[in-house]
């Protein structure tokens, strides 16, 4: 049999340029024309193939988290959670034996702006990990900060619209951001982190990660536990002040990607330890917040962090587009022993990720090497755009792409343990949760910041709020006051001083546009 890679044709070597049909390209400098001045002719297949492929080089970028960097590595399990065997809480194979290694791919990102935006912006950072486990893929799609702006997924598109550039001016506008935030009291806690130095991590290697949402662990008996995940960088944590970020941005707007890439190229492999917090699977009425509320921290004093493994990133991608851009993570991607909690935000996310990926990457996005599990896959799913591999299992009757069947085909797997069967009962309704406590933890976080971090927080808030209209400023001051009276007072005093400064300098808003003016402008047209 002929080797399929064997080079054919006269004078052709492995380095010979061909088109995608395998035709050797003999002239890559000139299109085919009538005479050497043109016009060009339309049957020029090499040119048409080259230019039309180029025309399609971009897929839509991620609607959020468009700017990112990725790396490969492995996760190593400790086999224990604290002093106890991990099997007491979960049967997930990835955690069982001490020293067991599982390959991972990680993508870090910033959230609001586009694919080539500066990496110095005040913005949460994404921390998405794909574990290629022996039971199939597990994605832990987290952020650097441990909480989120909202708890109801219905609000996510509005949140993102407010933070993205103004649809008229295409400029991010602090007034639009705080217009939304001031009317969304549960966001006060996240904003307290975001406008402190924690809102600008120095790079990707020196930041924490968190699953944010509450998940579940399930053991062999089918018993469930509430769990939160946290990544702690062994490199230490480093954040930037606004001035430090501005300084870096004036010289390099790719600094975080570069830092990660160069560290790995130089063999300086970044590592994170994975911690979990575990609670029994119930409502926890003793807490003044709901344990499923993603706007809340589970304080370490109440629920200890327990190490369960570590992750090392030791290989850069070979092709940014194929691996990083086309990577698709989702909160629905869990393996046996890991489960969802009733956290509404988590359930909303779980629909959104694979939905956007079918649109962004394509129906068969799971066939791409970066997304495909590194284990046996056999399904009756067929066809669709870009189908190239029929996952039907070895020795299967190729006529049977359905199940059940007596004449061949795939069979259901056995359940590896008792099913986790939570009992859910209640009226179907649209209502906020009971224990909202929107300001308590925001105040506590304000008080727990260091003096320096608190000063930075106030300064950053004042600079962004001062140019906003009065109703928005007043509502934000009210929200901060509810969190902590000193917090509200410092923001109010700061705004007053800043406005005097602005008036005397007769300067306009700093770093923001006025929505009011833009709307007026648009109406005038
Ligand atoms: C990316 C939706 C909340 C972390 C995305 C994407 C969507 C999305 C549509 C783009 C995915 C893609 O194109 O592949 C949502 C919705 C949310 C939500 C609907 C709330 C209802 C969160 C939260 C976190 C988070 C709370 C942090 C725990 C991420 C990360 C990415 C991402 C890290 C980038 C993944 C990557 O690197 O490809 N989100 N998100 N999101 N989201 Fe969310």
Automatic annotation (TrEMBL):
Species per Swiss-Prot/TrEMBL record: Halalkalibacter alkaliphilus
The name this protein goes by in its record: Catalase
Family: Belongs to the catalase family.
Keyword Transcription among record annotations: no
Presence of the UniProt keyword Nucleotidyltransferase in the record: no
The Catalase core domain, residue ranges: 18-411
Swiss-Prot/TrEMBL cofactor(s): heme
Keywords: Heme, Hydrogen peroxide, Iron, Metal-binding, Oxidoreductase, Peroxidase
Function: Decomposes hydrogen peroxide into water and oxygen; serves to protect cells from the toxic effects of hydrogen peroxide.
Biased composition (Basic and acidic residues): 411-426, 514-525
This protein's GO CC annotations: cytoplasm
């Amino acid at each position: 049999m002929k080797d399929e890679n064997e080079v054919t044709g006269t004078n052709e070597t492995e380095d010979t340029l061909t088109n995608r049909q395998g035709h050797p390209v003999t002239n890559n400098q000139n299109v085919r024309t009538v005479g050497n001045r043109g016009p060009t002719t339309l049957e020029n297949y090499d040119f048409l193939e080259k230019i039309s492929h180029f025309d399609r080089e971009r897929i839509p970028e991620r609607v959020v988290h468009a700017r990112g960097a990725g790396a490969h590595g492995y996760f190593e399990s400790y086999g224990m959670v604290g002093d106890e065997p991990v099997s007491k809480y979960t049967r997930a194979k990835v955690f069982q034996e001490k020293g067991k290694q599982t390959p991972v791919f990680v993508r870090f990102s910033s959230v609001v702006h586009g694919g080539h935006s500066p990496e110095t912006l005040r913005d949460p950072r994404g921390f998405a990990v794909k574990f290629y486990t022996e039971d199939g893929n597990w994605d832990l799609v987290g952020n650097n900060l441990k909480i989120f702006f909202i708890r109801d997924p219905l609000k996510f598109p509005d949140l993102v619209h407010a933070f993205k550039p103004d649809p008229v001016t295409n400029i991010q506008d602090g007034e639009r951001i705080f217009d939304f935030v001031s009317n969304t009291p549960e966001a006060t806690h996240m904003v307290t982190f975001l406008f402190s130095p924690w809102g600008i991590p120095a790079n990707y290697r020196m930041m924490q990660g968190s699953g944010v949402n509450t998940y579940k662990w399930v053991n062999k008996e089918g018993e469930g536990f509430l769990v939160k995940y946290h990544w702690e960088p062994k490199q230490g944590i480093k954040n930037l002040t606004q001035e430090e970020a501005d300084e870096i941005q004036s010289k390099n707007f790719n600094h975080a990607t570069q830092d990660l890439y160069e560290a790995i190229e130089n063999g300086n492999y970044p590592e994170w330890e994975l911690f979990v917090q575990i609670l029994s699977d119930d409502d926890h009425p003793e807490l003044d917040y709901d344990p499923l509320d993603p706007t809340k921290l589970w304080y370490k004093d109440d629920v200890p962090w327990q190490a369960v493994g570590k992750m090392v990133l030791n290989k850069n991608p070979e092709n940014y587009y194929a691996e990083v851009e086309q990577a698709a993570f989702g909160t629905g991607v869990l393996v046996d022993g890991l489960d969802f909690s009733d956290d509404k935000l988590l359930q909303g996310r779980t629909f959104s990720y694979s939905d956007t990926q079918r649109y962004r990457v394509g129906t068969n996005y799971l066939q791409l090497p970066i997304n495909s599990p590194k284990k046996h896959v056999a399904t009756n799913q067929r066809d669709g755009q870009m189908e190239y591999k029929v996952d039907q299992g070895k020795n299967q009757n190729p006529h049977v792409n359905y199940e059940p069947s007596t004449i061949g085909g795939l069979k259901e797997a056995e359940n590896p343990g008792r099913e986790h069967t939570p009992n859910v009962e209640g009226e179907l309704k649209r209502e906020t949760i009971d224990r909202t406590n929107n300001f308590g933890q925001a105040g506590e976080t304000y008080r727990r910041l260091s003096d320096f971090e608190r000063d930075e927080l106030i300064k950053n808030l004042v600079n962004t709020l001062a140019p906003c209209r009065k109703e928005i400023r007043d509502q934000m001051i009210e929200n901060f006051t509810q969190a902590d009276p000193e917090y509200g007072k410092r923001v109010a005093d700061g705004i007053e001083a800043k406005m005097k400064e602005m008036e005397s300098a007769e300067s306009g808003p700093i770093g923001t546009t006025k929505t009011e003016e833009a709307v007026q402008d648009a109406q005038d047209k």
